[in-house]
Specification:
This protein is an alpha/beta fold. The protein has helices spanning 18-25, 32-38, 158-168, 176-183, 206-214, 226-230, 239-243, 248-251, 253-264, 281-291, 295-299, 319-323, 329-336, 364-377, 390-393, 433-436; strands at 43-50, 54-63, 66-80, 83-96, 102-106, 119-128, 133-138, 143-147, 190-194, 219-221, 273-278, 301-307, 346-352, 355-356, 383-384, 399-403, 411-412, 421-422.
Amino acid sequence: ATISPEAIKGDNVDFFDINSWKNYIGGKGPSPFQSLITGSSRVSGLTQYLTPENFDNMVEFQIGPINGKLILKADQEDIVNNKRIFRFKRGFFILQTIWGSAITLPYPVPFALLGDRAIGWLETTHYDEASGFRAAVGNKGTKFIFQQRREDSVTIPADVALASEITSTTAQHETDDEERAANEGLTKRAIVICPQQFGGKPGDYTVLTQKLRDRGYPVYLTRLSALQWLSITKSAFSAAYIKGELEPRNALGFYMNAVDETIQRLPTPDTKYTILSHSIGGWVARAWLGEVASESVRKRCTNFVSLGTPHLAPPPESLVSKVDQTRGLLKYVNDKWPGAYWDDVSYTCVASKAVPGKLGFSDLDCLLGYVSYLALIGDGKVDGDGITPVKGALLEGAASIVLDDVYHADVLPNPIGSRNTKLIGCKWYADQLDEWVGAL
């Protein structure tokens, strides 16, 4: 970036330079934070999306192994001759992560607190209609060269549109009334979703829920909050935890209560239902059926479907069995209700072989898969969904569906946040619904 002519001669825009920050605070130079991301050696593309109302900038960059985009959103306030005047509203990053997906992070500049300093302008100094090249200078002195895209229609990339929606909205659970209205008139068997670890928060399973409702299934999510999940830490100080003898009813009582509350939201006391479980929600639901649900409630459960659930504990002779990350919970479930335990319940386990577990740093997905698979079944060199290996996801006596190319989840669990972090562009089990919807 080229610093404003008003700044001290010789200054550069540098995140680690005190003069850069002085110039920025004094209104004489660009943001040093922005220069950390958008230094010319790091930028691979800069796109502006201009409409009569909006002035949005997308900077594509790479810092070391990290590929990402910086999105700065602004409202156009005026056009004076060749100068577009705009006010920045907000910004966010899109960073490439695991499983071919990306996460969003806020841009740490409080535009709402900057007042008129959030106003900027971009003045076109030269334009060649034949080539579409445009030269412009910004209010901080930064110079740009743009070339107009010649496509008939230019749309904002899907990841940017979704990230913009995520960062500008507050996710909330459906109220009971909203849930009732959304399920009204749907005639297929009710679905009770038992979420993954740190799941069940606002925004989780929203797309899956809508897809199921579109197919005629009334859906009821087991709602959980960060505070409820944090209550599990109490078990870490117990003798049972140290001995590896935790029991689900005690350690996961909050989850069991939440499933009970979900069952109570079903339309009638006789409504039959399918449990659709995800990740650890599968073995938690097995425990709920076994020792929490009343006999009459259990008998109303006709089908049980698990998505990427680590059902099986490591072999007793393996080194990782001594560690046992569930501290006895999974062993307890498998000892008491092994396999497809209930004869009057139709069990289906859905797994994926999208990620082969491998050691090495050339493929982060494979390395993470190896570590997770090793911890779960004592063998990292197997196939799985990136978290749960196929071998650990299938219950004896259950029907099995193994998909080729879906990942474990479309969110990264955030233990302390009110919502989990969306993995933008991640293809997970819900994206192959047609492959397993018949099991519901």
